[in-house]
Amino acid sequence: MGLHCKIRHLHYSLVFPSDNETQITASNLGRAFRDALAKAEIRDFRFHDLRHTFANRLAQRGVDLYLIQKLLGHREPRMVQRYAHHSVESLRVGIEVLEKEVWYKDDTMRELAEYSQISS
């Protein structure tokens, strides 16, 4: 079975050209973003809010803050902390990791934890 590759030729050097096949500028991107917000009837939302959402979703899925820092291009870790807010559920998962590791080694503590889950 041979390996077949499909070669695609680009007619211009830009990966994401504008409709006029020119480079997308900040003003073009801003205009398209504002048009999309208006069409979706979204108010009080800035392009920078997408950056916050990106960092927040990564943090909620357990991605290390150092990695998020690098992805966002921040030099200081404290800059990442303002973006990465944890939900109550993600904080609960963090505690459960410790509970399983420490508490559940003792059979009595495991039984107590299971009983408290049943009664609540």
Question: What can you tell me about this protein's structure?
Answer:
- The chain has 120 residues and is mainly α.
- Among the domains are: 47-86; 87-120, no CATH class.
- The chain contains 6 helices and no strands.
- Helix 3 (65-72) crosses helix 4 (77-83).
- The protein is elongated, with a radius of gyration of 24 Å.
- The model has no long low-confidence stretch (mean pLDDT 77).
The SSE string, one letter per element, is HHHHHH
Structure classification = mainly alpha
| Mean pLDDT over the residues | 77
| Number of helical regions | 6
Which regions contain 5 or more consecutive residues with pLDDT less than 50?
A: none
Characterize the main sheet: none
**Shape, please?**
elongated
Number of strands: 0
The radius of gyration over CA amounts to 24 Å
Percent helix range:
55-70%
The rounded distance between the terminal residues' Cα atoms is 60 Å
Strand content: under 5%
Summarize the structure.
The chain is mainly alpha-helical and 120 residues long. Helices cover 58% and strands 0% of the residues.
